[in-house]
Structure formats: structure tokens, C-alpha cells
């Protein structure tokens, strides 16, 4: 009885479900030709290297045998490889407390109010802050270990050979409430600051410049620029810092590359070379800038700062020194960065706490030494023992109850997720994390098509483009009959289970005949082949 292709496909699926059970035993078959070599080559580069042909007049048992062979070959189709690059997401958790100060001794306030309480990544930054900014009744609460300090803001030494610093600092101005033991925290009296300082810290603040590394809310960023026209800042995570030769690119993954397209000589000896820098997506330019250094360029999640460029001695080609970042943060100054917290520049060219915040990049006399988040929410009145105040979703200012006394301190209990490529190092919550390697099985979804048996009426020895497996003898399979007529295989009604290879018989490709003198012998031959695969 003839079967349609649709019916064969359905049987093939059913056969795939029982293939492992049918292929577990040891089965014997007569081998003719190099059957082992054929069996070893049914899958190449993870894909099927054969087609399976069943006779139009085949019995149902032959169709099932063909389906089982297809299922076994399908189970062999996979790819494997070595992880050469990759990334991992790591969660970093940390907690710490600053020193404390007694605000209320149980009967009366213990300090002069209002009082400015300060903590930072190192107590020396507290001292610097007090010496440069006039604080009301300054109280240093020492260091908060989980606040981040960057030991070298200019690792490429673009601006200085000194290893200058940047660090996080928070402060809160606490005023008197309606009665002793209760306190007010007002709008603009609490802030988070990330500032750049001289190497010796006490010597003072430095101007924040493009390419410098600064901490921001527990993570290290590269500062890209402060836009003087629209008053916004841009920063991102470093992915490359170094020199790229003219005509070469840096691959960021996901189809993105940064290319130093050309470096052109200056018209006069005193001018800087001009650099044509491009950002490409899948080989197509999506952003381009052609200018003298310093060049600052932002496209979506990617930013580039080109600090310098030069040509080789023979003027044959040029080089550009640059830093590339991703995970770009672009934020407006004078606007809420997070609810109730406004992003501003930290103006170190002032002695007044009221004037350290600035949202105008071009303001005369401004020395922007960092970034600040200023509290602009509602005034908090009559805060008392057991209460706390959240600072930028990052640090907590706490009034601690201690035997009727009230102590003030800062604490942190943070968890940050960071993504790293192999070999990359990041600083988060004052911890340095490096991804040295990934030791795991890497899996990738790959579309693979397992072979499904086709009818002999739809296949041809002359048109074959790969090896063939013919299921059934010459009585039921026309292609097997062609081989028998040509004397390439010898199978009759008395033949045992047989696996016979006809070398080069299918348009130069080998053919394996799986057959026997009856349908039971053909089934046994198929099971023997499955056992070999």
C-alpha cells in the first residue's frame, strides 16, 4: 500500500520517540563494503550528511525502521566548542557603618544645633570638605568603608602624572526640632557628592575633566563630558583605554565597532592632527566625527573620548589615544536623577555650603570637581530616635536608640549587579572584581533539521547531493532495485539482515542499503545500523 509523505513524516516523529529503546540491544547484520566509514560520516559539522529513502511500496515496518534511523541521526546533531570570550553578571553585596555621635543624652541635646555630619570613603576627605566649605558645627563620623574611592582618576595620564583621587562623600545638616531629642532635616541640607581631589587629598579639589574615572553610587564610571549648551553630563563604563592605529577598530560586540578611520597631519606645526572617528553597527557607519582633539562623541549606549593623535615618523599612518565606554548615562543637570534627588555639579570654588551645587556648566567662576545629588524633597520634621533618612537610595542616615540616648550615624547595606567580560576588572562598593575566566558548558540554540525519510519516487541516484540510506530491498525500493540491476548490491528473498555500501553510486556519493530477504530482516538490519551510530 502506498503511503503519502505526510504519513511518513508522522511516523518519523513517532519513531523518534522510541528510537532509544529500539537501539539499545546488540544486533547482527552482514556488512558489505566499508559500512563503518559510511556510518561514521552520517553527520558532518553537526548536520545530517545523508538522505534516507524508503520504498513507495514499503511495508509499515520499513517506514518505522527508516524513522528510527532518522531519529538516531538527529540525536547525533550537535555542536561543541571552547569558550573564547563571554560575560558574567555578578552580584556584590556589602554593608558598613560609620562612627557615631551622640545627639541626645537622654535629657538634653548633646551637640550645638544645627550640626553638619559628614562621612566618606576615607576620613581625610571629611577634613578636606570642612577646610574648603564652611560647615555649621562640623562633626566627622569617620569613614564608611562601602563608599567608593578611585585611587587613580587619570590612568592614561592625560592631565597629570600624579595618581589623583576621587571619592564618595555624604553629609546631613541636622537642625533642632520642636523639643529635645527631635530633629529637622530640611530641603537642600542632605547630599551625596563624588569629587576629584589632589593626590594628597588635603591639597584640594581638582577640576573634573573628560576621560577621568569617578565613582557614582557605588560603581566606577568614566566621565565623558558636561555639555555647556544644554547642561547635561555623560558618563559610562570603560571597555577600552589605549591607542588604536589608523584604519583599525575595536569590537564592542553586538555588531558595534569603534574605528579610527583616519589621522590627518595638521596644516601647521602648532596644530593638533585631525581624527576621523566612527561608530559602526554591522559594518555601517551610524555616527562619525572629524575634528582635532579632544573629541567627545556619544551615540546611544556608546561614547568615545579621543584625547590625542599623532603620526609615525615617516607620516605613513597615525594613531589615536582614546577611551571607549558603554552603558552610557546621560542626565540633565538641575533635574531629578532619582525621585527627590537633583543632579548637580559639585562647585569646589566656593566656601558656602549653600553654593556648592551648580546646574549651569558655563557659569563664571565655576570649578566643577565632581557630581552631587541634592535632596529636594519635603522637609522632615521631628525625626527622633529609631528613625532613619534615606540618601539617594544608597546611604542611610540613622538615629539610633541606645538606652534613651540618641546616636547619629551613617550606614550602608547594598547589593549591586555588575556585568563583566572575561579579563575585565570593575570597582563596585569599594571592592575590585575581576572576571578571570568562565568555567562552564556554553550552550547556544542552533536550528538543525534531522533527516526525514522520503519516497523513492521523489529521490534519484543521479541527482543526489549527499549520501543515501536506502531502506528496503529491490522488491519494495526502486533505488535499491537500480543498484541490484547494476550489480552493485546483491539482495534477494533469502538474504539475511544486510548493510551494503555501494561506493559513489549516488552522483558520486556513497549509498548504504539497509535490507534483508523480508521485512523482519530489514528491521534487524536497521537496528544493527542504529547500534553502530
TrEMBL record:
InterPro entries: S_layer_C, S_layer_central, S_layer_MJ. It holds the Pfam family S_layer_C. Transmembrane segments: none annotated. Residues 34-533 form the S-layer protein outer domain. It comes from the Archaea. Residues 120-442 form the S-layer protein central domain. NCBIfam families: S_layer_MJ. This is S-layer protein. It comes from Methanococcus maripaludis KA1. The lineage of its organism: Archaea, Methanobacteriati, Methanobacteriota, Methanomada group, Methanococci.
